[in-house]
Design brief:
By secondary structure, the protein is mainly beta. The protein has no helices and three strands. Strands 2-1-3 form a three-stranded antiparallel β-sheet, with no helix packed on it.
């Protein structure tokens, strides 16, 4: 793999479990990665405080990667 991006779908969840919003963010994948090799990376996903009112929380439920 020469290059790529990872996309996170972070959901804002209300106190009763209602999904109020889905916010997407992207970051570059660690590249290059040789054939047969593996690499682990931890990402920090940030959400503006005003998007998460009192009593709500965030969950990153969907992660997708695209590479070349």
């Amino acid at each position: 793999m020469r290059s790529g991006t990872v996309t996170f779908a972070t959901h804002v969840i209300g106190g009763l479990g209602v999904d109020w919003a889905t916010l997407e963010s992207t970051a570059p994948l660690p590249a290059p990665i040789d054939a047969g090799a593996a690499r682990k990376k931890t990402y920090t996903v940030c959400v503006d405080a005003w998007r998460v009112p009192l009593g709500m929380h965030v969950e990153t439920r969907d992660v997708t990667a695209a590479w070349k």
